[in-house]
Each structure stands twice: as structure tokens, then as C-alpha cells.
Amino acid sequence: MKPDVDIVMQGFLGTLLMDIAPHLNAEYSVGNVSIMGLMLFMASEEYDRAADIRVAENNEMRALFAHAAGIVEDAALKAKLAAAAATTDGSLRVRTLNEGNAALAGLLIELQEHAETSKASWAAGLEARIWDWLVASTERRKLPLPSFG
User: Fold this and answer.
1) What percent of the chain shows pLDDT beyond 90?
2) Global pTM?
3) Which of 29, 91, 105, 123 is 20 to 30 Å from 132 by CA-CA measure?
């Protein structure tokens, strides 16, 4: 049998909260055990979805950059956008995906700054598209709280 990390960590949450915490006398210890259990739950959720979220975000940013490279007039930025749009994720390891995600996000900030300061007719639409992406990314990364009922 192969244990699933997320299920094991959620089991630890249940053990900490239902079996260990009720037998602790110090309020501080109960609080610490409860926080540790909650963090195990959140880590289990992130373990299960981390690669999926990062691959989706990276691909969405690349698509946004490909679109922007076709309308941005600044030659240096256009070249950066086209180069970034052509990249791929070299690995599904979360640390590697995080590094790629951070690099792409840095370029997204540069693109957003450019769109916010540009007077071009395309700028407002591009800025709105960037904000839509930021909202979707925030929603995608929200961590749920455990349900005990």
C-alpha cells in the first residue's frame, strides 16, 4: 500500500485535535497543537494541488504574454514577452515550478506597470486582463478550512 501524503496529513490533524488536544492541561499547548493540526491540513491541501496550480498559472501568464507581445510597442518589453511566452516548465517539481512562476510574475508586474502608464488604446484592455488574472490566481490559491461536521 502506498500512503497518500495528503490523506496521512489530514489523519494527523484528526489525531492532534481529537485525541491529543483534549488531554492537554495547558491552554497554550492546546492552542499550539490545534495550530499545528490546522497547518498540517493546509499543507495537505497544498501538496495535492500545488503543481496543478503553478502549471495553470504559468501557462496562463505565457498566453497573456503572447497576446501582449502582439500589441505592446516597446521593443525591449515586446522581446521579453515573446521570449517568456515561448518558455515551458522544465519539471513538475514544485520548487522548480515556483521559480518559473516567480520569474513570470516579475514580468507580469513589469507588463502591468507598462499598461498602467501607457496612453495607448490597448492599455486599458490589457490592464483589465491582468487584473482578471490576478483575481483568478488569488481565488485559485485560497486554502479551505477543514470541515469537522
Assistant:
1) 63
2) 0.83
3) 91
Domain assignment present for residue 105? The answer is yes
Q: How many structural domains is the chain composed of?
A: 1
Q: Is residue 137 part of a domain?
A: yes
pLDDT tens-digit series, residues 62-95? 999 999 999 999 999 999 999 999 999 999 999 9
Residue 12 neighbours by CB under 8 Å, 6+ apart: 37, 40
- Distance separating alpha carbons of residues 58 and 85, to the nearest angstrom: 9
- CA–CA gap between residue 111 and residue 92 (Å, rounded): 26
Domain range for residue 98?
A: 5-141
The full DSSP string for 38-103 is HHHHHHHHHHHHHHHHHHHHHHHHHHHHHHHHTT---HHHHHHHHHHHT---S---HHHHHHHHHH
The CA distances from residue 107 to 58, 61, 82, 87, 90, in Å, are 12, 9, 11, 13, 18
Burial of 57 per CB tally in 10 Å (0-12, 13-18, 19+): buried
